[in-house]
Design a protein that fits this description.
- 55% of the residues lie in helices and 13% in strands.
- By secondary structure, the chain is an alpha+beta fold.
- It folds into 2 domains: 3-104, no CATH class; 131-252, no CATH class.
């Protein structure tokens, strides 16, 4: 072996990093910077939500640099998904991609995901324009039942439309007295209850399970009173059965 080859192999060993990971289904895998660029590895680990098990090779500085980049990418991805969910009213659901497939498949999956999110945003905009009359009718009924000033409720509703949707917390969900949707139930039980309410259980469960758009539940908040569900019990029932947390329109008086 000549001196040039010896030097090249040494340099390659210093700059080469092998990342062992587990996929979402528990199966192991490896990435090698000899075959894949570092930034591409970080992207695939982040999007696929894989768990890093061990790092091999490289210098201590390279390993530290990689982990810093990876942590930053994870935070950015979580922030991006959180903003998109808040804007579109979809349930809180992790999107997992099988990275054992080809990069083309990953690209198509990511593209479909982004197209669905954009479609959801457009549907939400249309709902804000056309769905007000229905939502306001439910709010008027709630105001009448709770002996509240209708104008005050309407103004609070208009204010909440200017802000983002809110993720429903366990504390709020469990304290709503006019719905039993927080109780544990199976998918079959939720399906039966939604149908008994006159809803289309198959459609609701399918949309919730696949992150499709549904008008968000409306929850009315009053001082020193438990939160009150105005409309959206079907979405809550389906979300609970599927182990998901929906976003809501929070109307605060």
């Amino acid at each position: 072996m000549n001196r040039n080859n010896e030097y090249n192999e040494k340099e390659e060993g210093i700059n080469r990093l092998i990342i062992s990971y587990t996929k979402y289904d528990g199966s192991p895998g490896k990435f090698d910077t000899k075959d894949t660029k570092l930034i591409s590895i970080i992207h695939r680990l982040t999007i696929g939500q894989m768990k890093i098990v061990e790092l091999h090779g490289g210098t201590a500085e390279l390993r530290e640099h990689f982990l810093d980049m990876y942590k930053k990418a994870v935070v950015e991805e979580e922030d991006k998904n959180s903003r998109l969910r808040s804007q579109e009213g979809i349930v809180d659901r992790k999107i997992v991609i099988d990275t054992s497939t080809s990069s083309d498949r990953m690209y198509l999956e990511n593209r479909k995901r982004m197209m669905d999110l954009m479609k959801g945003r457009e549907i939400w905009k249309k709902h804000l324009k056309s769905g007000h009359s229905h939502d306001e009718a439910y709010l008027r009924m709630a105001a009448d039942k709770l002996f509240l000033d209708e104008d005050a409720v309407k103004q609070a509703f208009e204010r909440c439309l200017e802000g983002p949707l809110e993720q429903l917390s366990d504390d709020v969900w469990s304290n709503m007295t006019n719905t039993d949707s927080y109780d544990e139930r199976t998918r079959k039980e939720a399906e039966q209850q939604i149908n008994e309410m006159g809803g289309n259980a198959m459609d609701v469960l399918h949309k919730v399970d696949n992150g499709k758009f549904l008008p968000p539940p409306i929850v009315l908040f009053r001082k020193d009173e438990p939160p009150y569900l105005v409309v959206g019990n079907e979405v809550l029932l389906a979300s609970r059965a599927l182990g998901m947390t929906p976003h809501i329109l929070a109307v605060r008086l």
